[in-house]
From TrEMBL:
Organism, scientific name: Kwoniella bestiolae CBS 10118
Cofactor(s) needed by this chain: Zn(2+)
GO MF entry, a single one: histone H4K16 deacetylase activity, NAD-dependent
Main location: mitochondrion
Location in or out of the cell: Mitochondrion
Domain of life: Eukaryota
Keyword Isomerase (UniProt): no
Name of protein: Deacetylase sirtuin-type domain-containing protein
Active site: residue positions: 136 (proton acceptor)
UniProt similarity note: Belongs to the sirtuin family. Class I subfamily.
Keywords: Metal-binding, Mitochondrion, NAD, Transferase, Transit peptide, Zinc
Length: 316
């Protein structure tokens, strides 16, 4: 049956087919990437004007590979590099694009099963989309690398803006308390006789309180080398039973495991790929190449659908 379905899908290629699929499908998964936010002024990763190219050109961060900027191992070693740059990608005054509003339209029509977004800019939520899974997290919250303390993203916003490393408030308190106890102990010992070892040297004080440095806070965006939240697998496990159309927009499909969504949903589910540039490592059934905002606007007008106006979505 799968083979028959695939044979039928192999005839799909045109805009007409895409329109028919959109007209007849009821449980659409939208898999989106950085390309739906470029028109909002947020560069993607891999375009010729994207962040990777910019990081390479600027050279000021002295990265061996631009991907290091989002690598957890590199972050642990040199958090100051990320914090000297993070302000450039921090979601501040961006306004959702027609693509974000098109996803909202699908939801309003009861056609959206879920939007799996790789984006960290939270513009889907700003457009009012509720059935959205931010697969790579967002700046909404931040966590301590040491004690896992989670705080609202606004807590570290001033640090991002002033390009300083934020340390964990809970760890800082803990370290201060430990230091206080140490000082008390030292003072009480100082009152009595000093301790000497057999060679007559003063003994090293044993660090019975532990202590050390407070942990560094990291925005809860998924870096290379970090696992995705289990919610991703749970949602996909559920959705694969219901999905009847996969629409992929504005992604190079280079980052796993999100790029593997294509292989995790039944092969009988048709796929429409909307992107500026073609993909070569996968073969979606229908490829609509060009600017994503123009394509979804064109599809909508042909279907007689109206994309909500920017005024209809809350402003930042
Ligand atoms: P990517 O690898 O940079 O791919 C983006 C794709 O979008 C490219 O194939 C472009 O050709 C295409 N594209 C760019 N502009 C348009 C446009 N106007 N219309 C249609 N297509 C366009 O980025 P992916 O999303 O595939 O990679 C996943 C990474 C990118 C995730 O980890 C994200 O966190 C990360 N990222 C997110 C943002 C954001 O939140 N806005 C920005 C930059 C990077």
């Amino acid at each position: 049956r799968v083979l028959r379905r695939r044979q039928r899908l192999s005839h799909l290629s045109s805009l007409e087919d895409a329109l028919n699929l959109l007209k007849t499908s009821k449980n659409i998964i939208v898999l989106s990437g950085a390309g739906i936010s470029t028109s909002c002024g947020i560069p993607d990763f891999r375009s010729s004007t994207g962040l990777y190219a910019q990081l390479q050109d600027e050279g000021k961060y002295e990265l061996d590979d631009p991907q290091q900027m989002f690598d957890i191992h590199y972050f642990r070693e040199r958090p100051e590099v990320f914090y000297s740059f993070a302000k450039q990608i921090y979601p501040s005054n961006f306004v959702p694009s027609p693509c974000h509003r098109w996803i909202k339209l699908l939801e309003d029509k009861g056609l959206l099963l879920r939007n799996y977004t790789q984006n960290i800019d939270t513009l889907e939520s700003l457009a009012g989309v509720e059935k959205v899974l931010q697969c790579h997290g967002s700046f909404k919250t931040a966590s301590c690398l040491r004690c896992k303390n989670r705080v609202p993203g606004q807590t570290i916003e001033p640090f991002i803006m002033s390009q300083h490393i934020p340390y964990c408030p809970r760890c800082q308190e803990e370290v201060a308390q430990k230091q206080q106890k140490k000082d008390q102990l030292k003072r009480s010992k100082g009152k009595g006789k000093a301790r000497w070892d057999e060679d007559g040297e003063e003994e090293e004080e044993e660090d019975i309180w532990g202590g050390g440095e407070p942990g560094i806070m990291k925005p809860d965006i998924t870096f290379f080398g970090q696992a995705l939240d289990s919610e991703f697998d749970e949602c996909l496990f559920k959705d694969r039973e219901e999905v009847d159309l996969l629409v992929i927009i504005g992604t190079s499909l280079k980052v796993a495991p999100v790029s593997e969504v294509l292989t995790h949903i039944p092969h009988s589910v048709p796929q429409i790929y909307i992107n500026l540039t073609p993909v070569h490592h996968v073969k979606p059934d229908i490829c609509l190449l060009g600017d994503a905002d123009s394509i979804v606007t064109d599809l909508s007008s042909r279907l007689g659908w109206t994309i909500p106006s920017p005024a209809a979505v809350p402003q930042p």
